[in-house]
């Protein structure tokens, strides 16, 4: 292994080129935070300052934490380093397995190890023409379009209605206040164009539930009431739609009708066992009831079925870990969800609570400040299980969040 003082100018250029290849790979393109972390530590190594890499400086320079940050209290840098280490390993076990420059992050510190292989590895003849190595499961596409429309006696939805639905999906997945209302407009247009479009009713209900959970609804309109109407309408129009059943279950869970929520979520999974959102909503309903083990089994299945999990999936995964009292794993899941989409506030909210439960009060209050800046009157109770809700309440108190 070459040492920094042995690097020639051409070596340094090659290392920068290797860094660019890693950062542009599928393992890093979804996480800007992970990209910044790797670029920072490699840059410091190239500048001869690798031995100065500490959790405190990384927190300030990479994660934009305040000067009051305490790495002994807030484990964010340590956890991010673990994920960075795993992603580097995944990269070099797949598309980077024949690269002549290897970047690693050894355990126990933040100084990268950079190896320049002067003799390239022998590449199997049959693989020399390969230009891409995919680790994404071919079983499912990122968007399962089979769950946005179903066969009907009067034919499929019109192209215009389907286009409106897809535009709504694109907006909804940004998870901001503006995008939520924009999505509702598109879903409503799809329904106007085709009143029997079950998927449009289901997605409108899902957007309305999110509006309710975020406290964005106006005082004279009940978003949850409208969500219940549209989710029921979706099931009435297409009782064989797993999406319609799953969203009905999600709506009922927010009305605190836990038994019927479980029934609807289980029906969604029985209609299509390989529907990832069905497993997701069943996991959430089970976690809310305190059945952490069954919740985790379904959530693990959902993660396997969905090759590109969204921030919402990591939120659900974190809640399953929370229900099992696996707080460190819950924190990791919420942080990963935040990496994918920082705008999805429920991950920040539940992360603050979990920090609070774990006794990390400083980190809890830092995260709660992010929540309250966007969600000032938040006080949501997710768990139907009294013991879990009591634990969650302790976390809210320690984080400085309002407790209902």
Characterization of the model:
The chain has 404 residues and is mainly α. The protein has 3 domains: 4-120, no CATH class; 145-272, Tetratricopeptide repeat domain (Serine Threonine Protein Phosphatase 5, Tetratricopeptide repeat), CATH 1.25.40; 305-404, Alpha Horseshoe (Serine Threonine Protein Phosphatase 5, Tetratricopeptide repeat). Helix content is 59%, strand content 2%. The protein has helices at 9-23, 32-46, 55-61, 76-93, 159-172, 177-193, 198-213, 223-237, 242-254, 258-271, 276-289, 292-305, 311-323, 327-340, 345-357, 361-374, 386-399; strands spanning 101-104, 113-116. A two-stranded antiparallel ribbon has the order 1-2. The longest helix has 18 residues, at 76-93. Mean pLDDT is 85; it is low at 124-146. It comes from Hyphomicrobium facile.
Largest sheet: 2 strands, antiparallel
* Extended strand count: 2
Number of helices: 17
- The CATH homologous superfamily of the largest domain corresponds to Tetratricopeptide repeat domain
Q: pLDDT under 50 segments (min length 5)?
A: 124-146
Q: Do you know the CATH topology of the largest domain?
A: Serine Threonine Protein Phosphatase 5, Tetratricopeptide repeat
Radius of gyration: 23 Å
Q: Which range best describes the helical content: under 10%, 10-25%, 25-40%, 40-55%, 55-70% or over 70%?
A: 55-70%
Tally of domains: 3
CATH-defined architecture of the largest domain: Alpha Horseshoe
Give me the side-by-side strand order of the main sheet.
1-2
Q: Give the class from helix and strand content and strand pairing.
A: mainly alpha
β-strand amount = under 5%
Mean pLDDT: 85
CA-based shape: globular
Order of helices and strands: HHHHEEHHHHHHHHHHHHH
Distance between the terminal alpha carbons, to the nearest Å? 58 Å
Give the CATH class of the largest domain: Mainly Alpha
Keywords: Repeat, TPR repeat
TPR repeats: 311-344
Protein name: Tetratricopeptide repeat-containing protein
InterPro entries: TPR-like_helical_dom_sf (IPR011990), TPR_rpt (IPR019734), Ycf3 (IPR050498)
